[in-house]
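Q: Structure tokens for this one, please.
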Amino acid sequence: MSEGDAVDRTDAPVTTDRVRDDLRALGVDAGETALVHSSLSALGWVAGGAPTVVDGVLDAVTETGTVAVPTHSTQLSDPTHWENPPIPDEWVDVVKREAAPYRPESTPTRGMGAIPDCLRDYPGTVRSRHPTTSFAAWGVDAEAVTAGHAYDSPMGEQSPLARLYERDALVVRIGVDANTCLHLAEYRADFDGTPETNGGPVVEDGERRWVEFEEPEHRDDFRDIEAAFEDQYPDRVTRGSVANAETVVCRMRPLVDFAVDWMERTR
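A: Here is the predicted structure, written as tokens:
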């Protein structure tokens, strides 16, 4: 979408106050912990761009709350599995050996959008140490949410997702379908599946090295899980809008618990 298209479909410039007020109307209050997924273009024409949206999100929860976003860097993952695009087989070893290692303070995100990439650079934001599946957090519990992110637990029990689950975070999806919290359910559910070996380059004791880890088999059923959850518990899902973006808000804990049961029965 061009900037002109955004202007044409926006009734008034999207401001920090509007983002804050629209989030508050959906239950994102001061002191909340929120896992936020977002699309800048879905909001309409934003005065000031991504920082305006970040300011609005932080204003909604205030310094007494916590905001977390996925800041994944899949460009550092095992190229053996790449499909968009794939690379020649003879390139794989070179990429694994030579790609710059993950650095929380400077490695860009991939496919996460402008808002998470903006928040990761904000003063007071802390980013976890996982080379491919990091999360960044701001606020009172930022350190606790991001600490101890184990290489072999990209989105499992030793990841920020588990720390957010403990805090019964709100999952806030602004103009997107993405919902990373359901990956935690994949780690917890007992279903037949073939784990996949992945990896990424890190720096430890001043030396670059490649670390490997396993991830549960992912299946394309998250939208089915969300639809089943909302059908069974309509009062636990709040729908509305932030500026022009369709927005969905729900608690993480009941959704993940439901997803574990759903996966064990269905997969």
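A few notes: The first strand starts at residue 33 and ends at 38. Residues 20 and 59 are 6 Å apart (CA to CA).
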